[in-house]
From TrEMBL:
This is Sugar/inositol transporter. Residues 26-476 form the Major facilitator superfamily (MFS) profile domain. GO terms for cellular component: membrane. It is a multi-pass membrane protein.
Amino acid sequence: MAVGLAIGSQGGHHYNGKMTSFVVLSCMMAAMGGVIFGYDIGISGGVTSMEPFLKKFFPEVYTKMKQDTNISNYCKFDSQLLTSFTSSLYLAGLVASFFASSVTKSFGRKPSILIGGAAFLAGSALGGAALNVYVLIMGRVLLGVGVGFANQSVPLYLSEMAPPKYRGAINNGFQFSIGIGALSANLINYGTEKIKGGWGWRISLAMAAIPATILTLGAIFLPETPNSLIQRSNDPRRAELMLRRVRGTDDVGAELDDLVKASTVAKNTKYPFRKILEREYRPQLVMAIALPFFQQVTGINVIAFYAPILFRTIGLGESASLLSAVMTGAVGTVSTFISMVIVDKFGRRALFVAGGVQMFVAQTFVGGVMAAELGDHGGVSKGYAYLVLVLIGVYVAGFGWSWGPLGWLVPSEIFPLEIRSVGQSITVVVNFLFTFIVAQTFLAMLCHFKAGIFFFFGGWVVVMTGFVYLFLPETKNVPIEKMDVVWREHWFWKTIVGPAGEDSKI
């Protein structure tokens, strides 16, 4: 069964096909990998603001928050052990990404998704049952392995299954799923915080098992992508059958020919990590490093990990802080859905730039209000607290329809098949590396920079917006196996890889 939408592409290339229900259902299931990632982001920030959780695992932080009247507002949560709870997941995910790259290339996208779901399921069980901080962090490590495998394989899966014309919308579903996961976690935190007896945090951590179970069981029934089938087999017939099913038509000759040619190049590539360092792949390598780095230094993790803590810093109570995190999570989810609708119409570059401007303005105002109104002791008035909340909502919306989804979309669609798995691995590793660094250092930075932390991240937003404007070519509607042409037509990259008239791999 297929929806009757003919698919075309730019540059004179035409692939026949329709947006089939088979593709939609497969991608919805795979995108559960984003839900587990988002759930963890939301849940960790919430439980670290719950007093029973802090009292049990981080008593020094609890004491500073409740009893130390001399310590600065900005320094109450400054604890390396507390940040290790959050950041250990991303360090584990970073290491797991290297193994995930080999699994994704040699065994397919589906096994990587399955491993990711199973590891996350085990980690959620340990977290919910933890009796001491070491078991708690071990659970975080297993969650990190799960996220590492899922983030390696799911964006590739979505980009390879999607028709070129709708690849942006389908792939942005990954970030949309992250938003749904984070919003669900914030809602659960808001509810469990009210449980008498102080054990609600266990429910928050253990309920990560629900999306993990759905992903693990669903992955068993997921079809493999045509790109992966042809990369791992000498039988194009299997890929052709899957391609017909995915595109909802028997006329898939043009796309199959490109896949076969790309697979031939890929099979002759013996050392992909060495291959990606060659001059002809320089643009992709730069983007694989720059985009995930910039995504993390937008400052989004200030909100994603520590929103309840930040709201407590400006004087909101425990319950109000968690409710505020729910509100910002809802804003992020809605804005990501908007991105899904418009990304294939307006393109990647326009959303990157507009979102960057919006984030910069919001961060500047948040920093200004906090610098003027929040001292080292006491809080701010309710009016200014709500103003900060609104400005953070504006910032989250800007991220939600630009750097959030596009930071995953663009890297997943620009790599040729022979370096696709290793390229995505580099993207995930860089993302996790700087997520770890930001998560591990933010509370200390907040203590030392105070309100200046927002100006620090705002400066990076200016840099990344200028980078995208100058160096990122538009990739909307370009077939994924024809993507090398965008670099050969770009004013800067054609001086590196050669102009469009030269012979390319395909």
